[in-house]
């Protein structure tokens, strides 16, 4: 084999090794994230809230941990309080299914909770300004506690834009 052929073979093998070990350009980096509403939050009882934030982290594999949450600006001045943190979940890398597990909120003396299932968009931008949008539409959550006046279930709808070094 000629010297040129040997160099070409080594170069091709090296390039193949790099391609096989490279991290996809759109992979989550893992780290801190925060999220804010892109549409109003429809909370249990049909209460509509104009502000909500989530903070936490996402792992490189998409595992989500929400360590703090706020909800405010709700119709009629009704308080909706996130409880039972941390929440878990997953944001599928590259877009697809999204979940928030252990979701729980209190409103009007009623506590509702469950898993929110939705979808998230493919990552846009580059770290640290990358983002993904997760939509959870018409999700039924069960009554955890409250008086007999609290319905047995409620519907939650929300869309959050996640940003941060973890995306």
From TrEMBL:
Q: Where is the signal peptide?
A: 1-27
Key words, A-Z: Signal
Source organism superkingdom: Bacteria
- Please report the name of this protein according to its UniProt entry: Ig-like domain-containing protein
Species of the source: Actinocorallia aurantiaca
């Amino acid at each position: 084999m000629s010297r040129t052929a040997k160099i070409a073979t080594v170069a091709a093998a090296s390039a193949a090794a790099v391609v096989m070990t490279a991290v996809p350009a759109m992979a989550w980096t893992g780290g801190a994230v925060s999220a804010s509403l892109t549409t109003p939050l429809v909370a249990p009882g049909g209460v509509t809230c104009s502000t909500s934030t989530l903070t936490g982290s996402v792992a490189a594999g998409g595992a989500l941990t929400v360590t703090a949450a706020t909800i405010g600006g709700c119709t009629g001045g009704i308080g909706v309080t996130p409880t039972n943190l941390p929440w878990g979940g997953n944001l599928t890398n590259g877009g697809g299914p999204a979940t928030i597990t252990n979701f729980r909120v209190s409103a009007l003396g009623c506590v509702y909770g469950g898993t929110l299932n939705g979808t998230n968009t493919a990552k846009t931008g580059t770290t640290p300004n990358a983002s993904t949008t997760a939509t959870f539409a018409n999700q039924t959550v069960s009554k955890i506690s409250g008086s007999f006046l609290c319905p047995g279930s409620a519907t939650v709808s929300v869309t959050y834009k996640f940003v941060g070094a973890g995306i």
